[in-house]
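Lab notebook, bench 4. We co-purified these components, and the gel suggests they stay together. Before we commit to crystallization screens, I want a quick structural picture of the whole thing.
Request: model the full complex, all chains together.
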Amino acid sequence: MEITDSDLVRQTLSGQTTSYDCLMKRYQKQVYNLAYRMLGNFEDAGDLTQDTFIRAYSALASFRQDASFITWLYKIASNLCIDHIRSRRSRGALSLDKEIEEGREPSSGTPRSSEPEALSLVHATQEAVQKAVTTLPEDYRLAVVMRHLHGMSVEEIANVLDKPQGTVKTHLFRGRALLKDRLGALLDISPDGK
Amino acid sequence: MENRHEHERHSNLPQYSHEAKPVFSEQCLKTREKMEDLLEPESGISQQVAIGLNAHIAACSSCAQEYRRMRNLILHLEQLPLVELPTDYSIPVSRKLREMQPAAETEKESQAKLVKAARRAEVIQSQQQSKQNLESVVQATKKIVPLLFLCFMALCMAAGRQYILLSLKQGTAASANVTSSMQSIPIAGLGTWLIAHISILLLHAPEELLSTPTVMFGGLILDIILFSAAVFWVLRYKSINNSLG
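Here is the predicted assembly.
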């Protein structure tokens, strides 16, 4: 039988560091994916994943045993993502948001993409969708990523972001509207290629 | 000729003119507003509204395109694959966490810390115990005070009735004494004699009445009614207090 998250947290707090390794192995992929979808960059996503687990370890004593550990991790990760995006912006780095605001296409930062010609039409559309997601304002981006890429309910997102459900719904609505406008005719292609 | 060249020149230029925005009917606007609800399982849209929206989408090509795009967007988002981890991040994180741990403590320091923690735990425990005791006293007082009040009220009511009965008996006896003393003065005391007799009648009647078992039983019933009213009042007061927190 698999050990529950709260048991692993309890063991970690009592000094068994290997239990925290189990928690990291269990959730690192989800945290990494959230970070990647938010930041659009593999390197930053890796750093942010590590920071998330270090922060979580430091604050583990404040974790409520009856709460969901992954929701709590998402909360830490989303706060770090927002901090990261804001600091990148304040440092004057040319963010993807800025590129879009200036009317340019965001440059591809994904190492897995090959030449567009070699990609199938569906794959190309997915690439465009991913790029468009990383250009959304961070509040909308978080709501869209958590709802559609991580399959979380509006209630769960509201818990993670400490926002009312109505606000989350508004962010989702506006985020999807922005994506639809930005992707335009590309969305005439359905994921099954029809 | 010059006009034709002018026309060709213009036609080769990119068209920057403002395109006329399509005019949507009110139904189109309403449909677009609610369109996402059709695709959102959590929206809680009613079946009737969904049928109406679907009917409009089936009839309106512009809304159908919008709907198709929105549906495809959500499908594309949901089908974006999970990115594989380039490395196992638990290894560097564990290393960093070990580095962050304070240097190993000496045994003496550990013992001192343990003793200190145990003392602190004892203090906290005793504080909690006294707090619980105080709490139980407060709870008991809250229960006893209304009961004492009710008993006091019942006693007051019974004593009141007994006092009235006693007063009536004394009044009757005093009137009888006056009447008997007035019998030796036939004319002068006639008026007083009459008044005394009337007061005997007036006072004796309720005394008799109060002494009968029926009226005593009636008094008991009245006590019970008053007592119940008081209980009801106390319970209501307590419930209001509870609801206020």
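Residues 97-118 of chain A have pLDDT under 50 and may be disordered. Worth comparing against the SEC data before the next meeting. Chain A has two domains: 1-93, 95-194.
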